[in-house]
Amino acid sequence: MEHTAATILIVDDEQGTRNSVARALEPLGYAVCAVPSAEEALARLAKEDFDMVLCDIRLGGMDGLECQKRIRAG
Questions:
Q1: I need a labelling partner for 69 at 20 to 30 A (CA). Which of 1, 11, 20, 55 fits?
Q2: pTM (2 decimals)?
């Protein structure tokens, strides 16, 4: 049976943070997708499945807490 990497969606408006988290997770075997906004995260989640979402609380536009509520409401 082939092992499929867990997929993680990173949501942070700071590109440096997105890149740092992705660089830390990818060598561990995770498939990482990083987006700059909650709105973009919700759009990706409507089309793709992720095993985990790592979301900053303070974002421009919709904040991370509202994003989490919308993800849970799914």
A1: 20
A2: 0.90
Give the separation between CA 63 and CA 27, rounded to whole angstroms. Answer: 29
Summarize pLDDT for 19-70 with one digit per residue, the tens.
999 999 999 999 999 999 999 999 999 999 999 999 999 998 999 999 999 9
Q: Please name the residues in contact with 34: beta carbons below 8 A apart, sequence gap of 6 or more.
A: 9, 10, 11, 12, 18, 19, 21, 22
Dihedral angle computed from the Cα positions of residues 30, 71, 57 and 37, in that order, rounded to the nearest 10 degrees:
80
Distances (CA, A) of 34 to 1, 3, 10, 56: 28, 22, 5, 12
Maximum Cα–Cα distance across the chain: 43
* DSSP calls for 9-22: EEE-S-HHHHHHHH
Cα–chain center distance at 32: 8
